Amino acid sequence: MKHHKAGRTLGRKKGQRTALLRSLARSLVLQERITTTVARAKELRPFVEQLVTRSKKGDIASRRFIASRLGSAPDAVKKLHDTYAERYASRAGGYTRIVKLGPVGKRQVDSAVIEFVK
Predict the structure, then answer these.
(1) pLDDT band at 103 (very low <50, low <70, confident <90, very high)
(2) 81 in any annotated domain
(3) Residue 5 is assigned to a structural domain of this protein
(4) Is 33 part of a structural domain of the chain?
(5) Is 106's pLDDT higher than 80?
(6) pTM (2 d.p.)
(7) Residues 6 or more apart whose Cβ sits within 8 Å of residue 95
(8) Mean pLDDT of 51-56
(9) How far is CA 47 from the centre of its chain?
(10) 19: pLDDT strictly greater than 90
(11) If 12 and its partner were Cys, which of 16, 49, 100, 109 is the partner (CB 3.0–4.6 Å)?
(12) Phi-psi bin for 94: left (phi > 0), alpha (psi -120 to 50), beta?
């Protein structure tokens, strides 16, 4: 039974799920906008927003925390601290937006765009 089990499994084991979230988070931080499925976007949103909130502190502990969560991608850590921390300094959350995309062709495609709010 699935009592008190929060979060989606995304059809993967824990290690694979962690790797997927890290990869999506790195891509989102570096490209500022990615297209993925709705379920992945909804799982990615709190993961990335915690990183942005943590980067607003600007100390070395937050840099190390973010590096550990992103799998030590130095360019993504630098962009989080330099760009996003300054952009969202006066904002108290809600850094990302999920926009669902409509059907494409004959198939109902479950896709969405997740992007940073300007």
Answers:
(1) confident
(2) yes
(3) no
(4) yes
(5) no
(6) 0.91
(7) 48, 49, 52, 84, 88, 116, 117
(8) 97
(9) 5
(10) yes
(11) 16
(12) left
